[in-house]
Each structure stands twice: as C-alpha cells, then as structure tokens.
Write a structure and sequence with these properties.
Heat Shock Protein 90; five-stranded antiparallel beta sheet; Beta-Lactamase; 61% helix; five-stranded mixed beta sheet; 471 residues
C-alpha cells in the first residue's frame, strides 16, 4: 500500500478500516473458492459424461465387435460396421469424431478415412487408457493428431475408452471419440453460475453478519468514547478551577506576607513611639529624681539601692522594647537584590549577637518578588536567632544559591541538635512560622536534625510569581 493510500486509510475509524479489510479478504476468498468450485464442477461434468459414454460404447463394442481380434487395421467388414454406427447412424450427431488406436500409436480406424493408418507419439492420455483407465478432458485440439478436428471445432470433449477382447478381457485397442461442447459447456456454465451465486450469497451473508457485529462494537466504543470525552472535559474543568484556586491562594499568600510585614512594621512603630518613648521619659524623670535625692543627703542606704534597681529595670525594659521594635520592623529591602537582602539579614544578626556567620551567597540572585525577599530575610533571621539561643558556639553557616528558577536557602550549625517531631508537638512557634511562610509561597521547607549531630534547615522558594502559582 502506497503512502498516499495509507494516509486516507489511517484517517478512517477503526470499524471502517476493519470492514474494508474484511471486504478485501472476503472478495479474495470468494474468488478463490468460486474458481475452485468452477473447476471441480467442470471436472465432475466431464467425468460424468465420460463415464456415461464409456458404458454406452462398451455395450456397442460388446455387441458389434466381439469377434474383432485387434492388432492391425480393421478389415472392411468391421470398417463398414463402425461406419454404420459413427458415420451414417444417429450417433454421429453426438460423437463428432471417432478413432481406434493400437498400442503403437497408430490409428486403425477413424470416422475420417484420411486419418486411418497414421501413426503419432503415444501421449499421456492414450497410455493411461491402455493401462485400463477411462480418460476424459476438454481439449483445445492443438495436438498433431487433432489437426483435422481443430479446423472444424475450437474445443471438444475428448474421451479415451479401453477396448477389451471378448474372451480374455485384454485391452486390444483404445477408442477415442469427441463430443460436442455445446450442451456440455452449457451445463458446466449453468452449474458454475449457480456455484458463483451460492458463494456470493454466502460471502454477503458473512459480510453482513460481521458488519452487524462490528457496527454494534463500534457503537459501544463510540458511547464509551463520548463518556470518556465528557469525563475528560469535566476533569479539565476541575483542573482549571483547581489552578484558579491555587492561583488565588498563591496571590493571597504573597499578599498575606506583605501585609504581615506592614502589620509588624506598625507594631514596631507603635512600640517605638509609644512604650519606648514613655519608658525613656520615665528614665529621664527618674534620673532627675535620683539626682535630687542624692543632693538632699536624706536618702538612707536602702532607698539608694532600690533606686538603682528600678533604674536598671527601666533601662533593661527600654533595651528590650527597642530590640523587639527593631526586630519587627524590617529595613527597607524593596530596592535591594535578593543577594543583598540575605546578606543584610546575616549582618544584622552578627551585629546583634556578636557572632561571625560563614556565608556563601550567589551574586546572580538579583530581582525577586518582594514576598520572596521578605520570606528569605525572616527565614534567615529566625534560623540564626534559634541557633544563637539554643546552640551557642554552634558555628552557623548560611548558603543561598540559585537553582533553575528557584532560590535554595540552607542554614546549618554544629550544635546539640533536637528531635523535629518532638519540637513540633512542643509548640515551637518559630519553626511553624518558617514552614508556613515558605508554604504560602509554594516553596518546600525541610528540617534535618537529631540530638547530638546539629541542625540543617533548608527552604526552596520560586523566584517568579508564575512559579509560585504553579508550584
């Protein structure tokens, strides 16, 4: 099958491809079976005609030639008897030509006197007849011994009948006679037409049966395809809705992160402008009052000690409020690159704690959404603070690297370590807040720690809003 034919064929449905293939197979099968049946019918008709003719001729020879010894050209009396039967009698209308052959391939008698005495090579049919078997075939008369017949007729039924002696039953000659094909050919063609009609009807019935089965199966497949297509459409619709909801959740996460920082900034401003200022004013007034008490010289020693304790408590409270305020209020990072934001968080920790942090920050980290910068800053701030509190001298290390549209933040220390599951059940809010911050942006947060082998906190965050939505 050529490529030009194969392409249109492949566009057809499976049922139509199957039916076209079945039609081809049935037509080929019908042609083979019909041809075979036609040949069988022809052979059967020829054998039947030969058998009838052989019986008839044997009865004639038994009655008319029982005294003929054979072995040479027939004598005049035998010749006259055969002429009365095959030339002048009514049988000549059925037997168009009659010949008697001896075993050497010589014609000892013929209804055509010109052929008497002629010798020809012994053919297969003649030899088989001398072996005792009746032979019959439809001949095109193209052999050398059939040239006179070929001039008058295009095709004849040729029959060879062995002639046996009346006393010993030996084969003394072979009678060859030719029947007209007009009646026999008409019978053969009629039988062949009927066989072809039967084969056609059976083939058509098989095709209709297969067509019904395939049509029914095809309808079932189409119904299943429609159901599957409908389910796929529903699934696509659900996926679209899911993507839309995820997009809204990511947007809400980004907005929540930004709003949360604004809220913390307000609290920091309120602490700085409110309680911090009030405590500072109280300290100023307290210093003035303490100076006045010292100048009057009336204060007993116990009062002086109390004043010193109150002053220390007020100063400690002021430092705590200012530290909390500075921790809540994130420095302006909107204009900073992501690398500078991470570096700024580490430097602030080093300034507050007095520790040195080994850092490895990828300078290629430039632009990033503000929510990502905030999360990276808070993640570093909380992780390093936890290290300072729970693993003093743990030698913290910070790695911030870019990895295929994402930023990978890793904080490690060599402290005592802890059990993450126990920490989760114990209500460690710092770890929970870090995990939720990362999750809101579609990132991945992991903790690897165990008692006695330090802690490793890693977070993977998308660097674009689209990746946050589809993460």
């Amino acid at each position: 099958m050529s490529l030009a034919t194969k392409k249109p064929f492949s566009r057809l449905s499976f049922s139509r491809q199957f039916m076209l293939a079945i039609i081809a197979v049935l037509l080929i099968g019908m042609a083979v079976i019909g041809t075979w049946l036609g040949r069988q019918i022809e052979n059967s008709e020829v054998d039947r005609a030969a058998a009838i003719s052989a019986i008839y001729l044997e009865s004639i020879f038994a009655a008319q030639l029982h005294d003929w010894p054979g072995g040479g050209i027939v004598d005049n009396e035998t010749h006259a008897v055969l002429d009365r039967i095959f030339v002048k009698g009514p049988l000549h209308r059925e037997v168009l030509r009659f010949k008697l052959w001896d075993a050497d391939g010589r014609i000892v008698y013929s209804s055509d006197d010109a052929q008497i005495g002629l010798r020809f090579p012994v053919g297969k049919q003649l030899a088989t007849a001398f072996a005792g078997t009746v032979q019959a075939r439809i001949s095109d008369l193209d052999e050398a011994d059939n040239l006179p017949e070929h001039v008058r007729w295009p095709q004849l039924l040729e029959v060879y009948v062995p002639i046996r002696s009346g006393t010993q039953g030996e084969i003394i000659a072979v009678a060859e006679f030719y029947h007209s094909m007009e009646s026999l050919g008409r019978d053969i063609r009629t039988a062949q037409h009927r066989s072809w009609l039967l084969v056609t009807v059976i083939t058509l019935a098989i095709y209709l049966l297969l067509f019904g089965l395939v049509r029914r199966a095809n309808d079932t497949i189409r119904d299943q395809q429609r159901d599957l297509h409908h389910q796929i459409q529903q699934l696509h619709s659900s996926l679209d809705e899911n993507d839309h909801m995820r997009e809204r959740l990511r947007e809400a996460g980004v907005s929540t992160t930004t709003l949360n920082e604004e809220f913390l900034f307000r609290i920091a401003a309120d602490l700085h402008d409110g309680p911090a200022q009030a405590i500072a004013f109280a300290l100023m007034r307290f210093d003035e009052f303490a100076a006045a008490c010292r100048s009057c010289g009336l204060s007993p020693g116990g009062v002086k000690q109390d004043l010193h304790s109150i002053h220390g408590a007020l100063q400690s409270s002021l430092r705590d409020v200012r530290r909390i305020s500075s921790g809540l209020a994130m420095p302006g990072i909107a204009d900073l690159s992501l690398a500078d934001t991470a570096r700024h968080a580490v430097r602030n920790f080093e300034h507050v704690s007095g520790q040195t942090v080994k850092t490895e920050i990828d300078e290629a980290l430039d632009k990033a959404p503000l929510a990502v910068k905030i999360t990276v800053y808070r993640l570093l701030q909380e992780s390093l603070t936890n290290c300072w509190r729970h693993a003093p001298g743990g030698a913290p290390q910070v790695h911030v690297q870019q990895a295929v549209g994402q930023v990978l933040v890793t904080i490690t220390d060599q402290g005592a370590g802890f059990d993450p599951q126990a920490a989760a059940t114990a209500g460690r809010l710092g770890l929970t807040f870090m995990r939720e911050r990362v999750r809101l942006l579609g990132g991945i947060f992991e903790i690897d720690s165990a008692p006695g082998r330090g802690t490793c906190i890693s977070a993977r965050l998308p660097l674009s809003t689209d990746e946050m939505i589809h993460a």
